[in-house]
Amino acid sequence: MQLREICTTDAVSCGRGTTVLEAARLMRTKHAGDLVVVDDPADACVPVGMITDRDIVIKVLGNGVDAGTVTVGDVMSTPIVIGRESEDQWEAVARMRAHGVRRLPVTNAEGQLMGIVALDDLLKLLAKESSALLEAVTKEQDREHRNVR
């Protein structure tokens, strides 16, 4: 299945100049644990980094830095690991594993942000596919059992 089919299309983003305090408020408002940092939030929305709630705690609050003065661009994770909308889920899993990331912004052919896929999304998909496989096996076993009698 391609990433365009499984990604969450309402990824929350902000610009590099957003303060960490503003980012934290945006996360709270949007119920998001991460933000995709983009160069131009009003236009192209090309991802340049990521910031997570954990980044805010570890890099800012844990170091006694004023969240109202430091910007997302100062603490975001880079380089960003990106998935393309046309990639399949297994390519995304391999990239996430190789880079040790739990979230993958998904971009279109022009490199613009179109969504995000999280490890949770992939686990749900895997559970659904595993359930379908189990159902097929069970039906086959039931059919064999009926035919043996």
Summarize this entry quickly.
With 149 residues, the chain is of the alpha/beta class. The protein is built from six helices and six strands; from the N terminus they run αβαββααβαββα.
Main traits of this protein?
6 helices; alpha/beta; 46% helix; 3-stranded mixed sheet; CBS-domain; 149 residues
Topology:
Elements: H1 3-6, E1 13-15, H2 20-30, E2 34-38, E3 47-52, H3 53-60, H4 72-75, E4 83-84, H5 89-99, E5 103-107, E6 113-118, H6 119-148
Parallel strand pairs: 1-2, 4-5
Antiparallel strand pairs: 2-3, 5-6
How far apart lie the N and C ends? 40 Å
- The percentage of residues in β strands lies in 15-25%
Largest sheet: 3 strands, mixed
What is the tally of helical segments? 6
Unreliable parts: none
CATH fold title: CBS-domain
Q: Tell me, what is the CATH class? A: Alpha Beta
Q: Mean of residue pLDDT? A: 90
CATH homologous superfamily grouping: CBS-domain
Order of helices and strands: HEHEEHHEHEEH
What is the number of E strands? 6
Question: Can you list the strand order of the major beta sheet?
Answer: 1-2-3
Helix content: 40-55%
Report what the structure shows.
By secondary structure, the protein is α/β, with parallel strands linked by helices. The chain has one domain (about 5-120): CBS-domain. The protein has helices spanning about 5, 20-30, 55-60, 70-75, 90-100, 120-149, and strands at about 15, 35-40, 45-50, 85, 105, 115-120. The strands form two sheets. The protein has a three-stranded mixed beta sheet with strand order 1-2-3. A three-stranded mixed beta sheet has the order 4-5-6. Helix 5 (about 90-100) links the parallel strand 4 (about 85) and strand 5. The termini are far apart.
